[in-house]
Fold this protein.
Amino acid sequence: MARTKIYVPRETAAVSVGADEVALAIARIAKKTAADVELIRNGSWGASWLEPLVEVDVDGTRIAYGNVAADDVESMFVADLLKGGEHARRLGPTTEIPYLINQDRWTFWRCGLINPLSIEDFELHQGFNALSKAFAEGAESVLQAVADSGLRGRGGAGFPTGIKWRTVADAAGDQKYIACNADEGDSGTFSDRMLMEGDPFGLIEAMAIAGFAVGASKGYIYLRSEYPLTHSILSRAIASARDAGWLGEDIKGSGFNFDIDLHLGAGSYVCGEETAMLESLEGKKGIVRYKPPLPALQGLFGKPTVVNNVVSLASVPNIVNLGGDRYSSMGVNRSKGTLAFQLAGNIKRGGLVEKSFGVTLRELIEDWGGGTASGRPVKAVQVGGPLGAYIPAEQLDTPMDYEAFISIGAMIGHGGIVVFDDTADMAQLARFAMEFCAIESCGKCTPCRIGSTRGVEVIDKIIKGENKDENYDLLVDLCDTMEGASLCAMGGMTPFPVRSALKYFAEDFASPNENQT
Ligand SMILES: Cc1cc2nc3c(=O)[nH]c(=O)nc-3n(C[C@H](O)[C@H](O)[C@H](O)COP(=O)(O)O)c2cc1C
Ligand code: SF4
């Protein structure tokens, strides 16, 4: 009889709520009861609110048990876990969990499904098919598919990936690079991490495809230093891919050479900005470079470089497999395909939801997220990280569409959605935006370096009620200067959360005296 497969995620969020202890308890009780069990440490399906989510394979159907604690394991075995027996933690078949079935999983489809560190499992699930197809059909066909897909960068700026790849492919250079931005510094975001922990070979394949398409033989992953588990998983996956001949010289007899270096980030938010990241990769301080020259023409070590976010890259293998048109048939307007939305903050069901563009904020927060964790009304939602605007509850019906968000003074960025209930103090949050910028500024330009510090002081004065009108005007003026004169989006976009807080939540800026009258 075949061994029974039991899946317990080895993914940072699941581990933080006890997945390792659950796995140990399963191994211990299986041994004690002589149960023939194969314990697989998978990635997360993204339903973080159900972690640790344990699954048992019963005749090919995976039966899920949610929020399992190590203390539950003994009673789960007594309840015939290996046959998917009834238990208070039992959720039923994983494929029937509503949070998971109503998604459009294009990029994350293998996350949770496979054993992330088994190259055999990866290959059983279409792994390296796209790279092989690229070898067979040639670089031009990959470039065309990526252009046809309408894929835009998922790191924040939403720049068309096809144009970036074409620029690097056409650039002259004896050496070109693929630099994968895995710094993931935005508040409330974790999609890069989940992808790398749940499907590391998927990213490796994607980077090799990018290298093949543009003529780069070397790739770097710039990984957020706060992700030690991801680092260990990626390191092992890169070594396995090398051993299996999917990285290195003359990959699978194609004549194409490509290898990847994993580099730990410097722990600064601005190191996620592409040019600061390149400086940091070169071993220098993570300070933003002037543009031009564009990294696509003079990037890492002065050579043509594709800088792409993890999710942008990981979306490509299926684009190659299934066609760019198929990807662009999903989504709305100029926002094609899917995005991995990340639900965080004050939300009942936090986690990752991969969905086509066009879904509304309200659908994500209410249908998937179940509303606030506190049960109180939503007051504001910050989308796109610490530089994103605070969106008031009245605008929750805005569809997820890059341009629709720009039209309300907001941005989608990396798809992080942080929810606040009606107890949030928006003046303090506006102050925090300025303070964050002051702490994280790389210091290269004055509007950001000095402006953010002055911004904190001016907001403090407004809150205290000191010369309120003058200080209000001064703050607006300061925001104009930061927006118009900063070298990068750090200083240029910090005004977004500040202005939105002033515009939609003016009452929170009233001094205590004003509030009494
Ligand atoms: C302050 C700042 C921080 C950023 N942090 C990240 C990051 O952590 N990850 C990321 O992919 N992009 C980040 N970006 C965006 C990058 O500069 C760049 O646009 C992106 O890596 C390009 O890849 P894409 O086209 O695939 O999105 C940041 C930008 C700024 C201004
Ligand atoms: S805006 Fe801020 S982070 Fe960007 S270059 Fe200027 S000082 Fe550095």
